[in-house]
Amino acid sequence: MNGEPIVILLVEDDEAHAEIVRRNFKTSRIANRLIHVADGEAALDYLYQRNEFSDQASSPRPGIILLDLRLPKVDGLEVLQTIKTDPGLIAIPVVILTTSQAEVDMAKAYNNHVNSYLIKPVNFAQFNQLMEIFGFYWLAWNQLPTLTPSERTDRAVNTP
Amino acid sequence: MKTGEASKSRTWFLLVFFLFTAGIISIGSYLYLDYSRNYRNEVEKQLSAIGNLKALEIVQWRKERLGDGNTFFKNPAFSRLVRRYFDNPQDTDARDQLQAWIGRFFEYYQYSRVSLFDGQGIRRMTLPDDAAPSPSAVFLRDIPEVLRTKKMIFQDFYRHDTDQRIYLAVLVPILDMQDTSRVLGVLALRIDPQLYLYPLLNRWPTPSKTAETLLVRREGSEVVFLNELRFQTNTALNMRAPLDRVSMPAVQAVLGKKGIMEGIDYRGTQVVAALHSVPGSEWFLIARMDSEEVYAPLQERLWVTIVSIAILFLGMGAFLWIFLQRQSVKVYKCLASQARRLASFVRDSNDAIIIHDFDGRISAWNRRAALMYGYSEAEALLANVELLSIPGKFAEENDFIRRLLENKEALSFETQRVSKDGRILDIWMTVTELTDEAGSPVCIVSTERDITARKREEKLLVDSELSYRRLFEAARDGILILNAETGMVIDVNPYLIELLGVSREVFLERHVWELGFFKDLIANEANFAELQQKGYARYEDMALEGHDGKRHEVEFISNSYLANDVKVIQCNIRDISDRVKTAKELKQSALDLEKKNVELERFLYSASHDLKSPVVTIRTFLGYLEQDMAGADAESIEQDLRFLNAATKKMVQLLENLLELSRIGYVVSEPVRVTLKDLGKETITAVAGQIVERGVAVKVSGIDVALFGDRLRLAEIWQNLVENACKFMGTQTEPCIEIGVEERGEERVFFVRDNGIGINPRYCTKIFDLFERLDPKAEGTGLGLALVKRIVELYAGRIWVESAGQGQGACFYFTLPGALNNQKQGETL
Fold first, then answer.
1. Which residue of A has its CA nearest to B626?
2. What is the mean pLDDT of residues B169-193?
3. What is the second-level CATH architecture of the domain B669-828?
4. What residue ranges define each of the domains in chain A, with the CATH number in brackets?
5. What is the distance between the terminal CA atoms of chain B, rounded to a whole angstrom?
6. B475-575 has which CATH code?
7. What is the pTM of this model?
8. Nearest chain A Cα to B763, which residue?
């Protein structure tokens, strides 16, 4: 654990749900930066630092991605596929957070190398617990490689 | 067959027999002829030898007689004595001396008389001196001649005048030795041929019944026999024959012929004779023998030969006879066995065999007849065939049979007979005449077969054929019968004719591939060969085009089998147009169902996500609300309530839209005609709020285009699209929506065009998905376009969107063929 906060990219079209996640992180007091985009297209723009996200300082590379499946424009699954087929992005853990408990969605997600699949509980306490455990696990316990400046340069070069 | 062989071998043996016979006869004849030639030679030699010998003996005898004469001729002593005696008749001494001489002569030389004549021809002395008759006239005639010529003469046979006997004589002149010119007298030495000459002639050296020697001389034109003959008396000098009887050996002899000849002798008998002359005389000697005797041994030989040949013949004949006998025994055995076989054949024949005469009297009745008609053989033999005829029909039938037999027509025919128990039987009858050796008909053989059962079967067969024919004619399947070898159409049933709408003649005498109807299946001979090979074939997806061009979906089943020894292919053609149509519809509905299932699945999927989302929101914010209310954080409470409100509102909206979506295709209003103008008006009215709010200009073109369908549903299309266009006008200062129709090729395409924010081409298909929203912040549930798509598809149309891109406006196109066509299709909605 170094002092640098982990950037979390939340891809969620539902404003209410984004608010839930935001509130949970706030409660958990995990020193992180939560960046919220509302659709798949925006998520990809962010990852590739395009359009409104071209500023590297305000749009840093995320340490983990929380991805909803049903997204306007570019679907969550497509976003996942893009991340996991791009060598520059593949290392970023992607955690699906969705209301869908359809078997087919899970299978598709794992087939596309998702790192974790979480279903939004229809219960206030459970939702909070889930987000708490998520924070401990992915943000505290889970170890991520430190990115070197040259790698950052590489990533910039690799950006299409 | 066997008799043929027998007669062949008989012919062969007859040939051998005749060859042998010819050989035997030839050899026999040759031997016989050779023998007879040798034998004749022998006999001829013998005859010649005997004749020759006798002729020599006669010559010798004559010489001796002349020698005797010479004893006195020019005998001086005798002459002197004669002169003394003549000169002096009383000179007894001389006389005694003369008598002694002559007497001695007479005594020793067997002369019958010796006489001494003087120069005047007067007999002066004679011996024996018994009462001597006067000298013969012949003497008296010849003595002067002897006296004159002074030469001895041999007096030939003559008959004495007095005793009528035959004599010969030697007349010797007695010369006067002192005066030789003077003849003293003549000494006559008379010879009796009976003493020596005749016995000599009559003597035959071998025993013979007919052999004899003839002595003859010629007198003028006659031949005179000089000796006594064996078979006729008193012939000497008496028997004469004219010289023209040339067949007579005597005649031939005097005519100078010598050697052997065959002729007819004095008795008229066939004889073999050897002819000789007697030198120094006028005589001819003939040694002869009857041909009968000569050839007796030949005859015998001939008989022996003939008998031998006959015996050989008999032997051969016997052999042949026995052989033929044995052959014929074989033949008879063969015939007998054939006859036995025939008899058993007749007896055991499967047909009734009845022999009867022309009046119908039965003479033969076999087992089968007894079985068939129920009369035993004993009963039948006492009966008349009339018994078997249907009462009253006998005469007619008999007449018919007679006519058949006379005309030599086919003698088999069908008739009916009655059995003992009164059953009427169908009979196949064959009649034949039996004839005697002369060829005249004797009786009738009738072979009868009970065909009652067969007839019944035939009738059943005809009936069943009729019923099958009825099936064929009445079938509601097309049936085509083809010759499996040639592919020619043999038969076609009325249904197929009706189905294809052509006449029967079009089918018949054609090759199936020429018909054209089956071109999909049997386009040519090669295809047919395939069908031939398969035997059974079934095609369910064939189409036949009838004469009127109407297509019939058919099921084609072909099967080949033998019918009346002809291999045929039967093709059953069933019109399954209805079935196919049903199947198509079924398939379509299955497809539809599947589509609906997919839709439903999607719906459920979407529901699980999109309907759950507000619930998650509601539950979570209720939790926050609870916390915030406990903390009395007014600002947070307000925020919580806002989220809760939005979530419930969304929930309601979603449920309403889902309900509406589910209604499409289930709730059906009466289809009506509606023009685009009306629809445009309605739309503008319905969406008036938004149009006015955004100041959108709406243009409607192609207003005369009429649609037919559920008016409310159709209106929904335009309402949703216009609403959608208004929603995404963006920052357009002169918002405008165009409603219209354009013709693209065959298709009539409706469109709703705007000059709003446009759509990224990437999402042009996605936007029609359920709950799909491109802008999460935009209002709506994402069901609007899904709803439109659903309605368009109900009218068998398509919907798509074209957009040059962001800010370039968008144009929704859709087709509604189901609403454009006709009233009927509208009704199905």
1. A124
2. 83
3. 2-Layer Sandwich (3.30)
4. 6-155 (3.40.50.2300)
5. 98
6. 3.30.450.20
7. 0.42
8. A73
